[in-house]
Amino acid sequence: MQELGKEQDTMAKMEVKTSLLDNMIGVGDMVLLEPLNEETFINNLKKRFDHNEIYHSAVQRHLKRVQLGTSAFSSKGIDDPYVLLARQGRVTYIGSVVISVNPYRSLPIYSPEKVEDYRNRNFYELSPHIFALSDEAYRSLRDQDKDQCILITGESGAGKTEASKLVMSYVAAVCGKGAEVNQVKEQLLQSNPVLEAFGNAKTVRNDNSSRFGKYMDIEFDFKGDPLGGVISNYLLEKSRVVKQPRGERNFHVFYQLLSGASEELLSKLKLERDFSRYNYLSLDSAKVNGVDDAANFRTVRNAMQIVGFMDHEAESVLEVVAAVLKLGNIEFKPESRVNGLDESKIKDKNELKEICELTGIDQSVLERAFSFRTVEAKQEKVSTTLNVAQAYYARDALAKNLYSRLFSWLVNRINESIKAQTKVRKKVMGVLDIYGFEIFEDNSFEQFIINYCNEKLQQIFIELTLKEEQEEYIREDIEWTHIDYFNNAIICDLIENNTNGILAMLDEECLRPGTVTDETFLEKLNQVCATHQHFESRMSKCSRFLNDTSLPHSCFRIQHYAGKVLYQVEGFVDKNNDLLYRDLSQAMWKASHALIKSLFPEGNPAKINLKRPPTAGSQFKASVATLMKNLQTKNPNYIRCIKPNDKKAAHIFTEALVCHQIRYLGLLENVRVRRAGYAFRQAYEPCLERYKMLCKQTWPHWKGPARAGVEVLFNELEIPVEEYSFGRSKIFIRNPRTLFKLEDLRKQRLEDLATLIQKIYRGWKCRTHFLLMKKSQIVIAAWYRRYAQQKRYQQIKSSALVIQSYIRGWKARKILRELKHQKRCKEAATTIAAYWHGTQARRELRRLKEEARNKHAIAVIWAYWLGSKARRELKRLKEEARRKHAVAVIWAYWLGLKVRREYRKFFRANAGKKIYEFTLQRICKKYRDQFTDQKKLIYEEKLEASELFKDKKALYPSSVGQPFQGAYLEINKNPKYKKLKDAIEEKIIIAEVVNKINRANGKSTSRIFLLTNNNLLLADQKSGQIKSEVPLVDVTKVSMSSQNDGFFAVHLKEGSEAASKGDFLFSSDHLIEMATKLYRTTLSQTKQKLNIEISDEFLVQFRQDKVCVKFIQGNQKNGSVPTCKRKNNRLLEVAVP
To answer: Where would you find the membrane-spanning parts of this chain (predicted)?
Structure first.
């Protein structure tokens, strides 16, 4: 859309040269389209497309150069008034929009003659073209000193890559000339073939699809000549290296190398020309119609030389590419080791040998890296074998990382060649060519982050165009017809929110311990994002998708601004982890190939970093944030690319497809905003400052408010009131013709003022010369008098310094004598005080010793008296027991006699069975009645133990005859544990010495095991200090073997404070009693039964690791004592005799 006002018809009558509207097919400027709706918009695009008009203008600017009839500013060489405004920082831009429809064929509209046609021309003088926008951006940067950026967006296959190359070629053609400038321009242009070869590939939608995002900052000097550039790349689709969808190819460079390299080079790289020899190359689309891979390879080699690659560097790059190709041919076969574990072996080592010869790696080192994986944790290293599936994963991960790092190295190497060599202030033009919005049949992690990037680009387009335009009119209280538009910030927040965004939850799932799968990630999304209006999942809590058959269970769907996209969750976790085994990176670092070694710095053993590298999602999110921040500092210009059909064919225009793109690109909203607005706006202060010389009342100084001055100025110039409006802080001018009139009047007035300034300047210059001569005579006289005074001053100064030195020496010696005297006095006082303090200390020591002896004597007498008292009490209790026993015997005899009499009666009545049951009940009742509460508790515990361990634990029969005592250590009586007793306020149920098994090596340490009503405590046996305290509510399970050993594990609740170091593993001689009492106490306090697991193999949690405790039969060196040994990070063996 080219910006012309509502008075276009009137202005057309004044035109002398060809107008934008003359001989135009359809409407080139969408602002002028009538009526404006979706149907007319599409019809206009189709009409122009059918007549080979592929460009359309959709301008969204605050200030534009409108074509005047005389075109005075372009034909006479007079300064553009808008350039004058911009130099003073008084122009605000929203940005230009050019719509480009991909013709899928070559058109004769990019010749050098076309470049000259659009060079230094106003934006509206000729038909819409990408050169018009490029020229506008370049001149704004050169003349207005304002950084620019050109954002090229659209779907995959819409022509974004070609558009970026056209922009760069136009800028290179119109900027300055010279040997150095031409070299810089050539290097900038030739960086494209290199990056396209390594970063582009054929897809089902595009034969030259960018599989990475590229942002190039082209740097210019103050004259507008290029100094250099900086390229940033975003997320190469490295998964394409090892696998391509049906109908697509791997990256171009593989096919170009095999097609265009000489036989000598192929032999040196150990390659063959046949594509079918390499597993990583897709065969069904190896050849592309209209693409000459051999010619492109020669172009890439030539471009690498121009950019600045040395011959050995280019050779090293091709060797890495060859190594990646040959990695795909390595295949593995399964083998079983003696210990029963599966491992993988390489089938044919010839491919491995050739790779090692190319890269300079020891063959045994690389072979071991493909078969084993070393895991390091703190000071421990554990080496595990890789099965066939893991070996293939390691091979593909190495290929992907090797190619991805090679691509990043290429970008950095190109940046070294094209970067600006001077440190002067630079102007910058950024060109963004990044992947378009992608909706495939199978969308995975790559499509997810690509579409996320497009969401961010759409968001910045909304913020810098539609939203900002409307908000400024509302802010300035200018009459405005509100236009509703969709703000996609809610979708960006769904993806990138730091707490509950999809990327944050994916990172959290990848980093958490335990089993992590794509299904667990989807479950997490279903829990957190179920209520989000743009998130859809079959398994979410939202019932409206439960019966949606178009939504599979293993997928989720996001309503993007461009439409709904269904993502397959399979592979999200692995692709986000992007894990490369440390053994492979260390093997690569050991290569004698300088380039490969530099690509894997983390493989250096001296720089091992155990910290987990950032995930692919978090890296891409940070890169996108940096890109958005960079774009917001520049004036944006937009090229909105549209794909006319999905068949990549010329002369086909699919209206439904184009309609979909128009909607999500927001083009209609953009046109409506432009039609409702003003062409120019400016704050009152700079406006008055620029044009105040046109009115006598405002020149040279205006005393009142700036707005009042502007009103006086416009009234004096008799400008029609319908041509402008007054806002809160700015004046808004509807038609640029009004601004041109102001500039013409200002120019004439400036000529008059220039004549006056020349006259005043000549008089000032003569007076200044006279005053300078006079001042020079005064200066010469002053300098001579200064010299004489300085010489006399130096003589007086030298004499004063000698006198000062003598006086200072005398004062210093006097102070020294005083200080020495004070020091001797202080030393004497210190000595006397030390002797006195010593005497006092010895006297206090003797007193304390005497008190200690007295206290010891009292303790001995007290202990003797307590012993005598205890013995008397013992005698009394024994006598009492004997009397009770005699009474019990007599009572039992009488009861027996009584029972026998009753028995004879019932026997005579044929009731012998009932008599027997009755007698047995009476005897049992009598026996129970004799039980004390303590004895009842013991038998209840015995009964509980029988239910828990009978016929389950081999140790149980030996525990039946052993009474349950509980307090084996007698903490209350032993003075050694007085400190421990004082620290525990609850009743102690068990006090026993157990062996605690060390989590790291399986060795045992003695600990005091204490069980109270609410807690389980472990204390040091020697000092009595409490080491650990676990609430019973945090104990979830007790595990033990079924064999004749005393080992048992106490499992703790995950996430509790007590479980920070993991579960406890003990060994005790009273296992049955301790487990029974722990079970009953937990049941009493928590009202829940404690789970008792009896198994010869169970898992325990040691810090972050799950360790298997396995009980085996074996001959023991220590006789019948079981032994415990830590085998590796995952296994702890207990040998039981």
So the answer is: none
